[in-house]
Amino acid sequence: MAPTQANAAFVWRQFIDLGRSNSKKSKRYRCRHCQKDFAATSVGRPKEHLAACEKWQAKQRQERQTQDNAGYLPSYSEAIQKKITEVGIQHISQDESHSYAYDAAAAVIAGGRPFSLFESRRWRYFFTRIKPGWKPPSRAAITRILPDFYQELYDEVFKRITSSEWLNIIFDASDNVSGHRIVNISVQLPDGPAFYWKTFDTGDEQHTAENWVKLIWGEMQQLCGGDLLQNQFYLYRYRKHDALCTRLAREIPRALTYQLLSMRFSRPSASN
């Protein structure tokens, strides 16, 4: 039996079929819990009744409390059966649903959680309990939200970075999973954490001081709003490989000084 058919059958079981008083009128049904009867032509009216039926809701609360005390976790199908009778009292608008989905997706992305997080039976049951009218986002929905959320984070970080008087630019050279030589750049604020900024795939290019300057020059222009004259930088090499980092840390200031020779720019200091 299809899930929608099973859900409808669950609702109809809560009512007694009283039949028709004549062939021109709709069937009437009586609630097994409060004994109220009404006419209905589809499952929608009975669902609305259960959502407002005080005796039915009290029974559901009592059952949930008993299950919680016993540590029982219903199956997803059982949770859905309960959910469809509660939607009427917790209806949410489409805009509200989209807002919840965005916040849920943002939490998944920012926390580095798998996009399939809400496909877990326990997570879905949890959200059914606290918000019956809302459906958690699927991995496809989270994927669609990712670009907008990334841009939101990017704008927030960029605003914090560009409003700071001092910056630490941190370099970390390594090989990625494809064996490509890459350089990760992070920017740290004096009173805050280091933000990942960008990754460069340097290919076969040597990691000399001059090449480092070429890599970061455009980023420095962007972070400073195109005005390098009013900014000073501490350049710091992440000490993953001591010998390499020490050599590069000595060479980078000289390369930067050469690049800025005609500009009123304080000579940057290096930290080994």
From TrEMBL:
Subcellular location(s) of the protein: Nucleus
Main location: nucleus
Molecular-function GO terms, alphabetical: zinc ion binding
Signal peptide residue numbers: none
Residue stretches spanning the membrane: none
InterPro entries recorded: ZnF_BED_domain_contain
Coiled coil residues, start to end: none
Keywords in alphabetical order: Metal-binding, Nucleus, Zinc, Zinc-finger
Gene Ontology CC terms, in alphabetical order: nucleus
PANTHER family per UniProt: ZINC FINGER BED DOMAIN-CONTAINING PROTEIN 39, ZINC FINGER BED DOMAIN-CONTAINING PROTEIN 4
Protein name: DUF659 domain-containing protein
